[in-house]
Design a protein that fits this description.
single chain, 475 residues, alpha/beta, Aspartate Aminotransferase, domain 1, 15 helices, 16 strands, 41% helix
Amino acid sequence: MTADKLYERVARQLAGQMDQGLYRPGDRLPGVRRLAHQFGVSISTIVQAQRLLEDDGRIEARPRSGWYVRAQAWPRPEPPAISRPTVKPVPVTGQELVLRLVQAANEPDFVQLGAAVPAPDFLPTRAIQRALAAAARAGGANLATYQFPPGSPELRRQIARRMADAGCQVAPDEIVITSGCQEALILSLRAVAGPGDVVAIESPSFYGLLQAIDSLGLKALEIPTDPATGISLEALELALEKWPVRACALTANFSNPLGGIMPVEKKQALVALLARHEIPLIEDDIYGDLGFEGERPQALRAFDETGGVIYCASFSKTLSPGLRVGWMVPGRWREQVEYLKYVTSLAAPTLSQRAVADFLHHGGYDRHLRQVRGAYARQVALMTRAVGKYFPAGTRVTQPRGGFVIWVELPGQVDALSLCQRALEQRISIAPGPVFSASGKYRNCIRLNCAQPWNDTLDQAVMTLGRMAEASLVL
């Protein structure tokens, strides 16, 4: 068992003792040495467990006195219910605001809760700088050339090895390097669908996918989705019988914005359902490496027996958005995708490909993941606790098991678009619910990016958002 899992286990056991009344609100916990002896672990493990319990609002430190069970822990908000979109193909509308939200990510005086971009604190920036420098020194004149599709052979070898962790046995020649996951999604849609075709998606769904659908003249068919377990297979099957669906695109592992993860049986059933209908499945697995605990979840492609799943991912959420290194496994559409990649952007950046390949080869990626998974779990817990503390009664929040975003469902009277505009005036960016829907639904919902260092400024920003939402109830 790793150190991370050990302190999480100790934290859960201590929380259980509080729930059972062994330690009641206001009680002082035993000192760290005594707890270390009781649990048979190191003092540093106890300290980590205490920090996790503090992040979750269960205990608090008192100067020169120790740790105490909080007299009134802030309640964890209930999760939202399954979504109920209108299951009818529609053109994508209302995406104009997204560019403003992502631009705010580059403004240093903004509290950046809108775009799902990790702050540099959560990225291995210095290690990537060293990898880039090493690649530049070793590359010589080759760095001045295009790395035409399918991309760097060494990077594809390293990715193929990693995909085995997701249950996918993939040869390097099956992989195509792309300029991020967004390009992979666009290339996938172009390969399997044309203008006017219908694409079934989760609801709510990642706005980048909606923009890709819109830019290609496709129509989106929103399917009800459970925040914890993903798209409704029953609703999808009914939709397939009623509408001429040309493709299905979704995220099975820690979806954006809901953060849910499909159970293994449901993944198998989804892949089998679409195979029976001979409908391509486009899988966005960009958050698959960011689970908070346990083994890396299997990708949908792990259950593909007919070659109908196109796998897409990137290193933008784990290593660096600026590297623009993504990849896809196009399956039987490989030749078409390679051509589309070439005519679209010629090639992914050569230096970035070499640097990422070197970083993977020397184990830097795994070392980083071991650190950042726990960090994201803590950030999500802190943000959820703050929403429970500052937002209006009745607010619901998803409970993701990976990634770094949460979906917040506010009382029905709150208008997310209005809240977003007022927040921008206060130099706070959030992502309003309607941009995650083809038809502008979820007007009382917002998505928050938790991958920001927790400090007084961030706490104050969440408090400000809560007060704005509260004020909306009496307008």
